[in-house]
Write a structure and sequence with these properties.
68 residues, mainly alpha, 3 helices, elongated
């Protein structure tokens, strides 16, 4: 089956966004570790909550930073 152009675009967009997520997550995780921030493990280092509940995860990470 030929891949429709809009589906190919969606596949490429998803891959690009996943790469951007991985880069941002790596840099954030490195900073949290360096600064001794104890966030929930599901919210960084590739934790699933950062992907499936991104805004709740962001709130928890911000709370962990503020509580340091």
């Amino acid at each position: 089956m030929k891949i429709p152009k809009y589906i190919e675009k969606l596949i490429n967009t998803r891959a690009n966004l996943a790469s951007q997520f991985n880069d941002a997550d790596h840099r954030l995780s490195k900073w949290l570790d360096k600064n001794g921030i104890e966030a929930d493990s599901c919210d960084f280092h590739g934790g699933v909550e950062a992907l499936v509940n991104p805004w709740d995860s962001a709130k928890r990470v911000k709370r962990a930073i503020k509580n340091k």
